[in-house]
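By convention, the C-alpha cell line describes the chain's fold. To illustrate:
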Amino acid sequence: MKRRILKNMDWGILICAIALLIIGLVALMSATQNSESEELVKQMQWFAMCIPIVIIVICIDYELIARVSPIFYGIFILLLIGVLFTKPINGARSWYDLEFFLFQPAEFAKIFVIVFLAYAISKVQERKKDEINKPWKLALLLLIPIVPIALIIKQPDYGTACAFIVATILILYAAGIRKRYIISAIVIVAIMVPIAYFYLLPSHAKQRIDVYLNPNIDPRGAGYNIIQSKLAIGAGELFGMGVLKGNQTQLGFLYPKTTDFIFSVIGEEMGFLVTSAIVLIYVTLIVKAIYIAKTAKDELGSYIAIGIAGIFLFHMTENIGMTIGLLPITGVPLPFISYGGSAMITNFILIALLLNISGRRQKAIFIE
C-alpha cells in the first residue's frame, strides 16, 4: 500500500519547493556575505529539520490529522493569546523568543486553521451538500478562522491575517457557498475599506498605504525601502549584476534583505530571467495544488489542498507585488526563499499535506 501511495504522489510539488529553496539559499548567501550573520547556516538547519517532519506528515493519513486538528487548533489559539503578552520585536508581538529559535505561532496556526476548517465543513456536508449555506452554520464555521485572524491583527500582523482570509475564501468557494454570500461580502468590503482607512487603521498602517500610493512623499523614511527595492530590481535588468555583486544588496541599502526583500536581492543579482523563473515555479506549485484539490478522493482533501493553494498564492503575490511597488508593504515572507524557521517548517508541512492528499487520491490503493 505504501508503495502505491508513493507512486501516486505528485512529486512535482516537492521539486518546486526544493528549487525555490535552492534559489533562496544562494540569495541568502549573497545577502549575508559581508556580515557575521548565521542566517544561511540556520536556514539549512531548518531545512534539515523539515526532512523528518515531512516524512512523518506523509505517513499519517490526512483524515487522522484532520480528526485531531481541533486539539491543535485550540493549542495555537492559546499560543496566539499568550504571544500578545511577550516583548515586541520590530514593533510586533508575533514571536516567542526561545533563544535558539524565534517561534511564530501564527505561521504554524495556518496549518491547523486550514485543516480544522476543512474538517468542519466536510462534517457539516455529510448529510447534505448545501448545509454550509444555512446562515447560522456558516456563521459558526466562520468563527474558526475569525478568532485567529483577530488575534493576529492584534499583534499586529496584517499580512499573515490576509493569508488566512484568502485561504478561507477559497475553501468556502470550493465548498459551494452561494453567490449571494459572495456578493454580500464584496459589498461589505467595499463599504468597510474607506471606513477602516479613516477610522480604524493605526497610523503606521495608513502610512504604508500612503507610501504605496506615492513612495516619494517620504523617500528617506517610510518610502525608503520600496524605493531601494525598485532600484535594485531595475538594476538587475535581464541577466542580473551577478551573485555577490549587487550594489543595493552589498552596500546595505536593502532592508530587510534576507526576509521581506529577498526577491529584490534576486532581481538585482540574478536578473529578470531568474525572477521570471521563480514566478513560473510558484504558478506551477499553485496549479498543482489546485489540481490535487480537484482530484482528491474526498471533500476533506479537496478543501485542505485548495486552502494550501490560497496560502501560497497570497504569499507569492503579496511579497513579489510589494517589492516591485504594485502592493503595499506588509512584511509577508516569500515561501521557501525568505529566511525564517517558523515559515520554513510551516511551508514544508503544507507541501507534505499536499503530497499526502495526492498519494491517496485513488480509493483502490486501500484495497489489499
Residues 363-368 have pLDDT under 50 and may be disordered. The longest helix spans residues 262-295. Residues 2-366 form one domain.
